[in-house]
## 1
Amino acid sequence: MPAVTIQNVSKAFGDNIVLQNFSEVFHEGEFVTLLGPSGCGKTTMLRMIAGFERPTTGEIYIGDTLVSGDKSFVPPEKRNMGMVFQSYAVWPHMDVFHNVAYPLTIKRVSKAEVERRVARVLDIVHLGQYAQRYPNQLSGGQQQRVALARALVAEPMLLLLDEPLSNLDAKLRESMRFEIKEIQQSLGIAVVYVTHDQTEAMAMSDRIFLINRGVVQQSGSPEEIYNQPSNQFVADFLGKVEFLKGTAEPGRIHLLEVDQYLPYAGDRRGPVEVAVRPQNISLLPAGGEGLHGTVDRKYYLGDTTDWRIRLGQLSLRVITDGRAYGSYAPGDAVTLRMEDFHVFEDDGSLLEHLKIRT
């Protein structure tokens, strides 16, 4: 059964169109992420699902219920959903128990049922022992879990999360990604999650919708979008990537900024742009087939080494295992072999995904 159905939804504020012709079905138990840069329309879509904004055109269903349309609108409090915002929005004068119990209290749920459901949800978010504490006695991550518990206590069919981890430090943000995903899987609840952080999207999502300037550029699993980007924007936004301008010729691509050649098995001829992820470039001793350059700089990051290799006027980024840090020094001649790359049209659309077996 679908949790959310969106049919031809667009949203404009005056002459400014912020979202265009969004149509999709989000399923029960699915973790969907709306990903994109600031101002792309992702939060507007979430707010329309929540009922805080009305679509300019189109319809939105939650389950089988039409909640937004030309002649129908269900207010947020009647949409059977929970929502967690970027700010924790926990009440400082209430302890954890009463913060979480609030949605049930205003519905006049019996005291015994409130106690049962609050205890259950606090156990789910690992805050059972903190029920009597106040927000100023909790860490940022614990306060965010209070907000999550409050959204879950009414047992909604849909959970909406709007950049909920952006106020946390990097280490806590990483651990909370996995906690939220585990909670979602244990409850089997549908989640629509908004973020501009591609690492969050990759780690948590069943499907990602990558949006730019109000238009969905690509949707699919993290693996699909990362490995098969539909255009240059997608390739650039999701993960690290290097772009090289070239001309496709029979059996090779002439890389113009480097004035060297890349083996090419495709049929395209003429101007292209090659996209390669830094971790898909092998760094080898000088000599043999490949691109020839010199080590410019290197950065030791523990598990990886981040290199800058000078190829003519171009500095190309290469990422290798951290243990390779001592293999080369600045000024050393090296050979680069691109083992997995994409070829794009001048307009940014994908032509081919090529792998060179070595």
## 2
Amino acid sequence: MIILEDIVKEFDGKQKVQALAGVSLHIRKGELVSLIGPSGSGKSTLLNLIGALDRPTSGSLIVDGSDLSKLDDDGRTLVRRDKIGFIFQFFNLLPSLTCLENVALPLHLRGWKRSEARSRASELLDLVGLTKRTAHLPDELSGGERQRVAIARALSVYPPVLLADEPTGNLDSHTGADILALIHDLHQRLGATVLMVTHDKSVAESCPRTIALRDGKVVDDLVRQTV
């Protein structure tokens, strides 16, 4: 599902910075993988590349058959729209829209009819346990509930790839555990390929596979036994 071959990413400035230094990875369809490493290790840069938010300086990057390293901006936009769902640490919900409207918005932008978009949004909010919160605004929700709305929005078109950037990092330990359990449950039920960036060792160890980055390089790739 995700293939990286010798990915290098450099940022120009007063001094050139190499954020990724020849990363090669294969992530199979339906895997649940955590990505861990200290600040500055290249985790967010790697997630942005896989999410088609940026392009590598060199190397090959293929997501669900699309070679992102060769696509122009319009091509990467289509990949983000149709193949990738994003979950962010700080939720990124629009405060003036209800839960239902936040989840339906990506579908409106894809040209869905209003009734169809609202029906799908209602279905997704039910899936994440927020059936009774559809008309609430984000400020009327707890942090865990806002993250559930963000997860429902990320699933709007049931994308084959789900990217989660510190999805529990802005939550207390109990709520974070609930959100982590939800992500695991949705992974099992929907079969999406999930890549989750985290600083939390316990969150990383909950995944069947953990990839560790340091100084822009893969330093460990651990696959755990599953029953």
## 3
Amino acid sequence: MSSDTPIPPPRGNTLSVALIAALVAFLVGLAAMAAIFHYGGWSLGSTPAPVQPAPVQPAPTAPVAATDVATLASREQLLAARLDTLEARLRNTDADARTAASHAGRAEAMMLVFAARRAIERGQPLGFVDGELRARFGSAEPDAVASVVRAAGEPVTLEDLRQALEQIAPRLSTVTPGAGWWAAIRREASNLIIIRKETAPSPHPRERLNRAKRLLGQGHVEASLAEIARLPGAQGAESWMAAAGRYVETRRALDTLEAAAIGGKAMPAAGARQGDQDQ
């Protein structure tokens, strides 16, 4: 055998080196996978343990303070004082309600009298006001109610009196023809010489008649009636004076009913009376 012939490498050593290399590569892969699972939060088939809620601790209870007899008595006194305050408020509320009801009743009575006055001044019938006046004021002021109701049946207005006075004015300044010659002479003689104070009104028939008209225009019927009664021809104005007297009487009756309404003498309305009976 020649020395130039190459010697082949042994097959056993090459196979061993290949197996070792493959084993080392496998181990390196396993190590890499383990590192990935560990640091990346991956797990193999294992589930995280459930988080158990923290047990709720019961709130500490304050110790019950011992209640003695003095504390109970103090609380009872405080409760009694509060009850007394509530009762006082209830009494005040009831009194206020009664006062308000009284004021409302007086206002209703005043409105009733005002309606009657307006109807009479216009010469109109009272209508339903008639029955209300009898019910509300019949027991307290029966005469005033009768005067108002009677005046409504025969209404006399201020305009009626003014027109009637204009018609009879020409014969009021002279003596009535049936009075006699002696009365006429005395009347004329009294008018010739008149003695009076400087500030006193003139008693001359013409001046007196003018004053009566002026007073009547101002609504002073009673003063105008007094002037007409002193005129020479007053006997010829009896019907006018009677009508003026009824006018004055009616206004006095209305004033009386108005005072009764303000004073609370009027009876309550039918609904209010029924409510009081129910209570």
## 4
Amino acid sequence: MTKPMGSKCNLDCTYCFYLEKEHLYAGESSFRMSPEVLEAYIRDYIAAQPGPLVSFAWQGGEPTLAGVEFFRRAVALQQRYANGKTIENALQTNGTLLDDAWGDFLAANKFLVGLSIDGPATLHDAYRVDKGRRHTFAAVMAGLALLKKHGVEFNTLTTVHRKNSTQPLEVYRFLRSVGSGYLQFIPIVERNATAQAAEANGLWLAPPPDHEDAAALDSQVTDWSVRPADFGRFLTTIFDEWIQRDVGKVFVQQFDAALANWIGQPAGVCVFSEHCGRALAIEHNGDVFSCDHYVYPRYQLGNLLNTSLAGMVDSPQQQAFGTAKSATLPRYCRECPVRFACHGECPKHRFLSTPHGEPGLNYLCAGYKRFFTHIDSPMRTMGALLSMGRAPAEIMSLPRSQWLPATVRG
């Protein structure tokens, strides 16, 4: 995940965990990625890819703050260093700065745009505000209209927080109505840092838990974070509507990943994979971190101006980071009947203790367990359809009595 503007953003969303990362670079006057860093990154990233397809993911902060010309330069560099490989680009944006120049560029260069939107106006505007604390829904919808006008392929990223998590169908039906065919639901889980930690590094959100540091587990969940039970209901309620009418027409990341795990294929998303560590974050100045959610000094792998990207990805530090996801699972998780589908989700969220007092339980465990138990029968049925060379969407024409019986019990 490449941060061409670092944590800089024109919005001030209440729940954003990345805005505070500006404090890690407090002495810098510019957060725009320099031409030197951009070229080094593109050259090394393409060279490090073993396959014929190279995918770039531009995020932030807000990457469109870098301007269209920055991305024209990026595309030109990609073409220079492609060496016969196919290049594709994805841009995650809040959409509020898009105009016709952006539309022309994104369409001409076949960028896939991820648009951040949290549902209809009342739910979106609950936390997604600008620097003046003004609502942003209208500006985001204008950006969406601009993407449609120029024929830019887009999907939607929706954070699931304390406000919208209790309105799952309102959120889902809204996203479907605006033409999103691929939906990502990202649970918001953040903790307030201890006063001592906040004073020491200027970061008001707690870092990912370290089981060797008991004090890290004492901080409190923010009041905008989604509740575990609400998140479980959010996913199951949407799934129940999706399985009746939208299979094969609307793609939901959690459902796709679940089906992959049910049939023994890679989940395709790090949080539901057995190991992680392949989704590094690259800051505007070339600093490379183990993960987008682990941009803290202790997780810095180096800087791409003096260390190769491949070397950082394959370093002992990063390899240990990736395997720790599985290695640190508490016994309660290792013996869970839905471990194959969850794999403990994101280690950042593992700050609870199990019923037996062992640390490392995911905060969202109860919600995920409800969701994965709930979808077992339809997932097994869609898996059986796939094994027969048939489309999973055929499940919509089958009466529930013909679904395979569930084997997972909560």
